[in-house]
Amino acid sequence: MTAKLIESTPQPFKRIDIDPITLDIIENALRNARYEMDAVLFRTAMSPGIREQHDEFPMIANVDGKMVVGQFGSFIYGFLEGFDGTVEEGDIFLTTDPYSCNGAVSHANDWLVLLPIFKNGRLLAWSAMFGHMTDVGGKVPGSLPTDATNIFEEGIIVPPIKIYKKGELQEDILNLILHNCRLPHWNLSDFNAIVAACRTAEKRCIEIADRFGDDVFYSAMDELLARNRRAMRQLIMNTVPEEKQYFEDYVCDDGVGMGPYKIACTMWREGEKVHFDFTGTDPQSIGSINFLLNEEMFKMFCGVYMIMVFDPQIMFNDGFYDLMEVHIPDGTLLKPRKPAALSCRTHALGRIFDVLGGLLGQGNPDFLCAAGFSDSPHFMYSGYDKNGEWYQLYQIGFGGIPGKPFGDGPDGHSLWPSFTNVPNEFLEAYFPLRIEIYETVADSGGAGTHRGGNAIRVGYRFLEPGQISIHDDRWLTYPWGVNGGLPGKRSRKILQRKDGTEEILPSKCDRIKVEVDDLLLYETWGGGGWGDPFKRAVEKVEFDVRAGLVSVAGAKRYGVVISDRYEVDQKATTVLRKKMTADRGDTKLFDRGGTIEELKERCLAETGLQPPKKPEFQKWVTIGQR
Amino acid sequence: MSFRLGVDVGGTFTDLLLVNEQSGEFFTAKVPSTPEDSSIGVLTGIKKVTDSAKIDASMISHVMHGTTVATNTVLTMTGAIVGLVTTRGYRQVLQIARSFVPGGLGGWVIYNKSNPLAPLALTVEAQERISSKGEIIQDLDVDAMRKTLAGIKDQGIEALTVSLINAFANDVHEKQIREIANEVMPGIPVSLSSEVVPEMQEYERTITTVANSYVRPRVASYIRNLHGELQKTMDDLQLHVLRSDGGLASAAAAENLPVNLLMSGPAGGVSGAVWIARQAGFDNLLTFDMGGTSTDVALVQNGVAQLRRETTVGDITVRASSIDVRSVGAGGGSIAHVPELTKALRVGPQSAGADPGPACYGQGGDEPTVTDANITLGYLPAAARLGGEMNLDRKLAEKSVQKIADALGLPLKKAASGIVDIVNENMVGALRLVSVEQGHDPRDFALIAFGGAGPLHANALGCLMNSWPVIVPPGPGVLCAYGDATTRIRDEASRTFIRRFPDTSSEELVTILEQLAENAAQSFDEENVPREERTSSYQVDVRYHGQGLSLTIEVDLDELRSKGLDVIADEYDHRHEQLFTFALDADKEVVNVRAVVQGEATVVKAPLIEAGDKDASAAIMSTETIFVDGCDQEAHIYDRSRIKAGNRIAGPAIVVEMDATTLILPGHTGEVDKLGNILIRPDEK
After folding, report:
1. Which ranges of B364-472 does DSSP label H, i.e. alpha helix?
2. Is the ipTM of this complex over 0.85?
3. How high is the pLDDT of residue A625?
């Protein structure tokens, strides 16, 4: 099966030399087009996840499907390999099936639209974008069941299809899809918005080619990829050691009582090539925390992370992909086999960034960041209101950005690009709830020379009976600190019933019934600290205490003695810091707050929840073989 | 006989324009600005301009003033120490903000967030709660509030902000807290979110109100001081300050709501451009104001500058109407560099500023800037002196640009034109934001250039945008003062009113809009502006139910009365389709409603210059070699003060005047109109 490209003027482009100035101008124009795609989507989409939290990813790729500007590595090549049909002018493709695009989208909520850009009868480029729909049907509102055991429980799955054929919308198909969703008018609006964004990119690419010539446009895209490759090659040579580096981290549980699950990765360099080998990662879960990790996507994560840490001047694209070799064993948490459930993949997806940080940083401790808010925890609330109208809220939570070489981690922020929170006044106007608390959790950021950001505490007061779902993690394992920094505080969820009783909810749960006037305290987790906390400037600790971001007691973690009237006792501080430094001894490169065994042992006492059972894997899973 | 005076305080010069209200005759003056206390420069300028007009200052009845005091207070972070009162549970509303981390994936690694404009240590909570519909869920605990405020009053608070949850729907608790604050901390100005911006979204409302408090003491003392000084010589004076949205505010309104002045400076330029272009016969404009460190652009349609409901200064974005001016960090001082790893040519956003300035200033700067590139190419001939004073050293300029040439492996002049091309492209990015991305075709607009460096790059931008003619007005500096003197008094009132169309009616909307117009007219009443001189206009922010952002639709009340809500609905569908390529069959929803009241416009006519014929050779000062279109070419250098109406100047050519230099490219001709504008158009092929 291979897609067949139909061009009315199938004349190949000429590869010509481009002067550096023209190249820069075209790069700039493409980047503008990509931001314009975002702007169009944000203004017209309805799913709050896209609209406010910007859970969407645009890109523009060259004729071969290599991403030149954008944010998710290109999957187009793989897509075309697997698509049995034609690619023609006016076609627009849609898929929501992770297993059909090798994980370019990683759960069925993400709708991926792909538009081949034709000019004068020739394929000139591709634009593509995916966004997270609030609901795509399935067994629970929001379509992200924590207890799913296969993908068919997670809503409607659309294989790669032409949703527009030669310019004509396939309305029957679209209606069929929409009919399976709980909020079809949202899906329709979001779908329209994504298509409009892709069309914007189409228009811009054609304009650029008009201005500079088709061959120049074609060649410039090639050259931009080559330029990035040259820069990344240098970066890899400078920063990745040849000896093997190993790092592991965990997803705490699978929502069905087992965990933690290990993600392991070994990294080394051979010549100009860097290798990543995920051997040692746990087998796929029978629950829904599997994350189908696209190798190209991982290269993109890795490249972006390296650029940000080491040299933010580099413009990022797909050009360097052949400099990275990624091996993910089949049948693991990161490469599950169909039809494994994927709906709670967000935790493993986030955790990849902690793994990357640990891998790349341990050889360069000056550039090492602590464990961050490597997740996007979900909160869902739905039901019928007094008037019999269905309400359904899907919200992403925020937390502590880690302490990093360049400074403190912000409190209650996002690790993901361009995510923003939803204004609480907006929520109160549209959903039957009141947000009574919206604050950061004092002392939840890991202590360090650079403090980890604080977690967020949201108090939801429910005004209608309904049901809630929660997806979070890091309730058992800690967001680790580095270079002497301490771990951040873990997450927790407490439901205070109207009658005064209180229950601790598990980190992942579905279908919890709530009644009028129940209050949910939703606490995310803090970022790990960076560097020796006893070396943090006393004034900074004092500032944080006065601000209420660190408590008087919490200041002791920095060895700083402050009175209840916020006066620093300099003398006592000097003494305490000296003593604590001596007691501690050498600083640790990583501080995970204990081994997995220790954490499990202390689990009930510290979290109020039973420790998860050791994971059981399906018997048929034999890693690395099929 | 009475006069009105426009005063614009810029970074370098203060420009003044004195107009005889009866005859329309006018006088201009230019004096150096006095940044430490800009009223000194203003007073010096007034002396100068009244002297040249041979009138007594007491004959001036109106002073219209564009000021950057509010802007600079934010940019230099020298505002008041602001205390903040929030609803219980929301003390950290500014700390959390919108949880947004700039930059792409991994942007957090290099992101360091600045501290809130109101320090957390001075932020306290009120025990109270109001629902989103405005019902009181919990009464304000007055005693606790009094104690809490007493607890922070001795910590140096200079201004207080009250921003409670859902206060847009009910302001009763905010008002109660103001009363308590007035007792507990008398003399401290209090800003209420329900008055500054009674609209939904707690973070935006809070930051806007806090920003108001932050700039308020400085702006108020500046305005009072200036007002006082002016009143010493002018009887019955009315002082007006230019708002970010291009309207004029009374001195009192400016003091109380200085958050509306954050873009006062750029608004003056745009207003001036609109004024002169209209007299030259152009109503659809892209304005292009290029200075030393940044470039401001805006779009004007049918003589009206496009507005947006947002103002950004430095790190801070507030909800206040302003002319939709987009800024890019691209100016004459922008530094060109070639990063080691990519070997790409980047220009800006770093700027050499005024000190050390571009390499050619000879003040010790050796980084190549856009100005250095322009000199290398011969576009700033020796006859053209920056600000009329400074000498530019071509050797130093070339030496700095050579660094770029070496890094790119290009000849010197190619590298220099590369720098100019890239910076032009950056500015095109901003022009696209206000035009193409808002659904406007730039070919329908003329491009008007001002600012020190604007006329030098304008012809190239005209080519890139296909916007013709390119208009270079005379004396680009005094343009802002024209803007100040010729705009109208303006005030607005708005509120959040969320209703799906089926749940409201045209009658309800009309009633609310009329009430808002009454509120907006309060400052007009206070100044005794006669009713017949006021005009009201109305706006409704609309979205499809479920969307987050809205579009602002202008509403005619009579039409709304007679045709109902469909008038708004149809216009919204149309606009949505124009902007985003599709409309939806979904419920529409009102979000915010707004009334804008304006006073009468002042009629001021631009002066005519002496008429001549097509031949401009009398104005030629010299002929020099410049590098343009990839090769060396001979270009005439013209003295702008000697050109006459009707002159045609064929490119390549350079026209110099005291504070700006105009470049006309090969294949283009600049035609001088009766007002002295140079209108550049491509030659017919």
Report:
1. 370-376, 394-408, 412-434, 454-465
2. yes
3. 43
B382 located within any domain: no
pLDDT at residue A448 in the model: 98
Mean pLDDT of chain B: 89
- Number of domains observed in the structure of chain A: 2
User: Three-class SS of residue B412?
Assistant: helix
Length of chain A as a residue count: 626
Q: Do A21 and A164 belong to one domain?
A: yes
The answer to whether the Cβ–Cβ distance between A189 and B104 falls below 8 Å is no
Beta strands in B113-198 (DSSP E): 123-126, 129-130, 136-138, 159-162, 190-192
Side chain identity at residue A46, one-letter code? M
In a domain, A542, yes or no: no
| Rg for chain B, CA atoms, rounded | 26
Amino acid, res. B444: D
Q: What does the radius of gyration of chain A's CA atoms come to, in whole angstroms?
A: 25
Say if residue B415 is in the same domain as residue B562: no
Residue A471 and residue A376: Cα distance in Å, rounded?
9
User: For residue A430, is pLDDT > 70?
Assistant: yes
Cite the beta strand spans of B232-294 per DSSP E.
238-242, 248-250, 285-290
Q: Which domain holds residue B114?
A: 81-208
Domain count for chain B, please give it. Answer: 6
Amino acid of residue A124? L
Percent helix, strand and coil across chain A, each rounded to 5?
30, 25, 45
Query: Which of A17, A21, A390 to mutate: most B Cβ within 10 Å?
Result: A21
B89–A435 C-beta distance less than 8 A: yes
pLDDT(B211) > 80: yes
- Is the separation of the CB atoms in A515 and A495 below 8 Å? no
Residues A208, A344: one domain? no
Rounded average pLDDT over B570-599: 86
The residues near A617 (Cβ < 8 Å, ≥ 6 apart) are A282, A283, A284, A285, A286
The pLDDT of A488-511, averaged and rounded, is 96
Q: Residue A338: how many CB atoms within 10 A of its CB?
A: 12
How many beta carbons lie within 10 A of that of residue A476, not counting itself?
A: 24
A384 neighbors A126 (Cβ within 8 angstroms): no
Structure tokens at A611: 């420790």
Whether residue A274 is found in the same domain as residue A214: no
Residue A268 and residue A209 in one domain: no
Q: Determine the structural domain holding residue A270 and report its residue range.
A: 240-293+328-532+587-607
Q: What percent of chain A has pLDDT over 70?
A: 98
Q: In terms of DSSP bridges, do strands A390-396 and A261-270 run parallel, antiparallel, or are they unpaired?
A: unpaired
> Which residue among B202, B426, B432 sits closest to A424, beta carbon to beta carbon?
B202
Q: With an 8 Å Cβ cutoff, are A28 and B119 in contact?
A: no
The partner residue sitting opposite B547, judged by closest CB among A51, A414, A415, is A51
Q: Judge whether A310 lies within some domain.
A: no
Would you call A32 and B110 a contact, using CB atoms and an 8 Å cutoff? no
Facing residue for A419 by CB, picked from B99, B132, B432? B99
Rounded to 10°, the helix B412-434/A20-44 angle is 10
Low-confidence winner among A47-61, A197-211, A441-455 (lowest mean pLDDT): A47-61
Give the integer Cα–Cα distance in Å for B102 and A370: 19
A245: closest CA among A321, A357, A135? A357
Calculate the CA B504 to chain-centre distance. Answer: 36
The pLDDT of residue B102 is: 86
Which residues partner with A47 through β-bridges?
none
Give tens-digit pLDDT for A245-279.
Answer: 999 999 999 998 999 999 999 999 999 999 999 99
d(CA A530, CA A589) in angstroms, rounded, equals 10
CA-to-CA distance for A98 and B252, rounded, in angstroms? 61
CA distance A56 to A54: 5
CB contact under 8 A, B201 and A426: yes
- A615 touches A253 (CB < 8 A): no
Q: Is B502 exposed, middle or buried (0-12, 13-18, 19+ CB in 10 A)?
A: exposed
